Amino acid sequence: MRKLEEIRAEIDEVDAQMAQLFERRLGLSREAAALKAEAGLPTVDAGREAQIIETNSRLVSSENRERYAEFQKHVLEISKK
User: Fold this and answer.
1) Of the candidates 61, 80, 30, which has an alpha carbon nearest to the alpha carbon of residue 69?
2) What whole-number distance in Å separates Cα of residue 62 and Cα of residue 69?
3) Cβ(40)–Cβ(76) under 8 Å?
4) Using an 8 Å Cβ cutoff, are 56 and 72 in contact?
5) 36-58 burial, b for 16+ CB within 10 Å, e for fewer?
6) Do the Cβ atoms of 43 and 36 come closer than 8 Å?
7) I want to staple 60 with a disulfide (CB 3.0 to 4.6 A). Which of 43, 53, 64, 73 is the partner?
8) 32: exposed, middle or buried (C-beta count within 10 Å: 0-12, 13-18, 19+)?
9) Under a CB-based contact definition with an 8 Å cutoff, are residues 53 and 73 in contact?
10) How far is CA 46 from CA 42, 54, 68, in A?
11) Residue 57 to residue 74: CA distance in whole angstroms
12) What whole-number distance in Å separates Cα of residue 80 and Cα of residue 7?
């Protein structure tokens, strides 16, 4: 059995990776918003958001699917700010 310290160290690594991906995603969201503004398009696309949640939720186990969908919804909300 692994030690608690080992598990925590691995969690820290995952959190660091998630932080980098979060920064990257927010940057891309800002770029997309700027392009939409230039083209006169609405910044929010509910259909696209639903597609993102549905598609990405399939990437996790059925056991975690509902929680991941909730996580993805929060990420999308934060990306709009």
Assistant:
1) 61
2) 11
3) no
4) yes
5) eeeeeeeeeeeeebeeebeeebe
6) yes
7) 64
8) middle
9) yes
10) 10, 12, 18
11) 13
12) 33
Tell me if 11 sits within 8 A of 4, measured CB to CB: no
How would residue 81 be classed by pLDDT, with cut points 50, 70 and 90? confident
Encoded tokens for 12? 């820290």
For the segment 15-63, what is each residue's pLDDT rounded down to a tens digit? 999 999 999 999 999 999 999 999 999 999 999 999 999 999 999 999 9
* Size (the chain), residues: 81
Tokens (6 digits) for 27: 């940057």
